[in-house]
Amino acid sequence: MSLSINTNIAAIDAYNNLNTTSNAMDQTISQLSSGLQIQTAADNSSGYVIAQDLQVQSNGLNVGIQNGQNAINVLQIANGAMNQQVSILQRMNELATQASNNGALSSSALSAVNAEFQALTNQLNQIASSTTFGNSSNSLLNTTEVLTFQLGAYASTTNQVAVSLSPTTTSALTLTSLSLTSFTGAQSALSAVQTAIDSVASIQANLGASQNQIQADIANLTVSQQNVQAAHSSLVDANMAQTMTTFTAQQILMQAGTAMLGQAQQLPSMLLKLIP
Fold this sequence. Notes:
Blueprint: H1 9-34, H2 45-100, H3 107-130, E1 145-150, E2 160-165, H4 183-236, H5 240-265, H6 267-270
Antiparallel strand pairs: 1-2
Helix pairs in contact: 1-5, 2-3, 2-4
């Protein structure tokens, strides 16, 4: 070892090693205090980019699950309203059947039956026009609607479900201008009401199939979100046990480095013993 007074190589080496240990220790303390091994792009540039993409996917899946629940709520509201309409139609079918028994009914009885039939017809329209989700302008059964639900993280048709809703107004069900005041009118009404029952039941069957599809999508999204969160965690979160072990070793290195720097700084003074 070369000894000189002007340049203390040993002290410089000890300082550089101590500075390196200090920087590493600062990073370890940051990881321990935040619980993250990647906090900025400087920590791991490629890992940071991947983590951001995983976060986008995780957030999208989370909202997609919520969207799916809202979609089911929309379909349940529509289906519940049609349940009421089917009940009304069944009663209208009874009335049309009763009115068809023309030979046993007086004109006043037919008028009473017809009055109830017309009131139920109006009730069908009232349900169709008032069934909404969220606000009065979002009608579900008044006109033909194609409802699109975003059930994924990305702008792609594979992340969307489209549900077609047909109107259930008396006009759409061909129940206008019906009357039970005559045998012919009662027969026409009976046929029209039974066709309308089949039409509404068909619409409900399509909604039921769509609801099952959305529920299956929600289950898949839930599993996907768990896997994405696990991938994000393994990439970004710090392994606390391993990091704490590293911190302990760095503490020892800091103590040893500080002591050795102190020793190295005393080396030039040893040269004084060579002077007689």
